[in-house]
Amino acid sequence: MENFRHFSSSFPSTAISLAILIGTAELTVFGARGLTNPSGFLQGFGLPVLYKSSTSTRLIEPDASKDESSAEIHPAQRALVEALAARNIQNGVLILTFACFVRDRRALGVAVTAGLITTIADTLVVWRYGTPKAVYGHLVGIGNCLGIGGSLLLLE
Predict the structure, then answer these.
(1) Is there a domain that residue 51 lies in?
(2) From 41's CA, which of 11, 20, 35, 79 has a CA 20 to 30 Å away?
(3) Which of 63, 62, 28 shows the shortest CA–CA distance to 42?
(4) What are phi and psi of 37, to 5 degrees?
(5) Positive or negative CA dihedral for 59, 74, 128, 113?
(6) Which of these, 134, 112, 142, lies nearest to 24 by C-alpha position?
(7) Are 145 and 116 in contact (CB under 8 A)?
(8) CA 54, 58, 62, 67 torsion-angle sign
(9) Which of 144, 156, 146, 108 is nearest to 30 (CA)?
(10) Helix (H, G, I), strand (E, B) or coil at 12
């Protein structure tokens, strides 16, 4: 039993492990995916995708099962997706830096809890302009920021 305690003492706590998972998701699912597949990112985010054709611009709702290439996405919308993706990558790097390198539980808690600002804003944008059922995914994000960030700040 003593060997297991010694072995497991180097593991991060559950809250820190979940924060690392969030940081990794911010880098990959919410960051790199936005840069490599803007239309898929928007559909997952819950917003409609504007596709640009040679004759017109057409709106595709997030639930539509279109197999459009990312090159056809409207340039203005692509730029906004890239800005969102860059924001998510920055947030993921910040979380992973505090969790893995600095190893400061309080700073990590502040970083994760501060994610409430963008997560609430994203929720309101999707609620107003996007697919109503996609709001639930953003509400999960709010719960993650509160639960994980709060536990990092309040629990030792």
Answers:
(1) yes
(2) 20
(3) 62
(4) -140, 75
(5) positive
(6) 112
(7) yes
(8) negative
(9) 144
(10) coil
152 to 73, 109, 137: CA distances (angstroms): 40, 5, 22
Do 112 and 152 touch, CB atoms closer than 8 A?
A: yes
Q: Which pTM was predicted?
A: 0.81
In angstroms, the CA 99 to CA 89 distance is: 15
Separation of alpha carbons 27 and 38, rounded Å: 15
User: What residues make up the domain containing 49?
Assistant: 12-154
Distance, in Å, from the CA atom of 2 to the CA atom of 36, rounded to the nearest integer, reads 48
**Tens of pLDDT, residues 85-127:** 999 999 999 999 999 999 999 999 999 999 999 999 999 999 9
Beta carbons within 10 angstroms of residue 68's beta carbon: 15
| Residue 79 in tokens | 């730029």
> Is there a domain that residue 35 lies in?
yes
SS3 of residue 58 by DSSP: strand
Q: For the chain, what is the domain count?
A: 1
